[in-house]
User: Which sequence fits this backbone?
């Protein structure tokens, strides 16, 4: 049903705080600032999606009416500071935003510290003045934020993080975001890929990084194919996806992120994969071989990755399995 301004204004008097906030957000989308006070309070909401996304977007829609209130909040420590800073970025303002990020990176709350790192990563090079503070941060997304903000300057930090098992996945994602700038790290990445004792997510992160940091796609294809032989179901599926992306026949469609935070996934997936010169047919053959695998999930993933280049017969084989 549609919500009239009169109904929404009535909800601003509700005893339920969430109902008041929802009404204020809807009013903002109608260009009405009657719920401004509720929106300002919402900047300190315990749910990140509300205080960092929903409320800032609503406040930014109100123009100066909303911005005048949040500019002062962005300058003062407190739970509403980052939401206020994000509101300013939605309106195209950076004044006070970097100071808010730097201040929040040293907050006693680990969630606040990571929210600050994510805001810096989302801003990218525009947050360069927060780079030094990010290098000192223990936030989970601080390293990939360093890459987004500083590019090649973050290579040393990413390489060092790769040496610790606890930070390997984060380091591999950071290296993938650096692309060919991280080429010299490929032996260490291959070693992680080959480590049978490593966690699945770590080995898959290594495969994802490898196809982006190494320029010689033929060499990368050999490493990935070599791991396919002894791989279990989920590692094999991940390797199929990585190998397929090396093929010149693989459609170069924009990556659409389904993971949070979106800025980090966009950073990593936007890096071009390695160039293949002599092994294009071999790469396709490596994936096509998986159409005969007894596991239906393996066959399905192989078919999905090469479907545009498959004949109808090969597609039927992917669905039903190898003929006896």
Assistant:
């Amino acid at each position: 049903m549609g919500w009239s301004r009169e109904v929404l204004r009535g909800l601003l008097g509700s005893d339920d705080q969430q109902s008041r906030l929802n009404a204020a957000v809807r009013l903002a989308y109608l260009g009405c600032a009657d719920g401004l006070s509720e929106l300002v309070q919402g900047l300190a909401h315990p749910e990140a999606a509300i205080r960092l996304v929903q409320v800032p977007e609503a406040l930014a829609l109100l123009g100066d009416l909303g911005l005048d209130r949040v500019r002062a909040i962005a300058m003062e420590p407190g739970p509403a500071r980052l939401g206020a800073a994000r509101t300013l970025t939605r309106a195209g303002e950076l004044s006070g935003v970097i100071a808010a990020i730097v201040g929040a990176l040293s907050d006693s709350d680990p969630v606040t510290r990571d929210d600050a790192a994510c805001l810096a990563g989302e801003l990218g090079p525009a947050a360069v003045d927060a780079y030094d503070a990010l290098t000192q941060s223990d936030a989970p997304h601080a390293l990939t934020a360093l890459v987004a903000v500083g590019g090649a300057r973050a290579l040393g930090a990413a390489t060092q993080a790769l040496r610790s098992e606890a930070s390997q996945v984060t380091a591999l994602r950071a290296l993938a975001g650096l692309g060919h700038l991280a080429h010299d790290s490929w032996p260490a990445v291959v070693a992680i890929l080959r480590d049978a004792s490593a966690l699945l997510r770590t080995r898959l992160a290594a495969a994802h990084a490898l196809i982006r940091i190494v320029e010689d796609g033929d060499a990368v294809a050999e490493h990935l194919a070599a791991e396919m032989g002894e791989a279990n179901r989920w590692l094999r599926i991940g390797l199929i996806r990585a190998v397929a992306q090396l093929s010149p026949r693989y459609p170069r469609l924009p990556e659409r992120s389904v993971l949070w935070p979106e800025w980090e996934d966009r950073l990593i997936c936007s890096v071009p994969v390695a160039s293949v010169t002599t092994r294009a047919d071999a790469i396709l053959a490596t994936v096509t071989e998986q159409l005969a695998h007894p596991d239906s999930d393996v066959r399905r993933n192989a078919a999905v990755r090469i479907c545009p280049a498959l004949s109808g017969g090969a597609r039927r084989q992917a669905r039903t399995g190898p003929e006896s």
Observations:
- The chain has two domains: 1-101, 185-324.
- The domain at 1-101 is CATH 1.25.10 (Leucine-rich Repeat Variant).
- Confidence is low (pLDDT under 50) at residues 308-324.
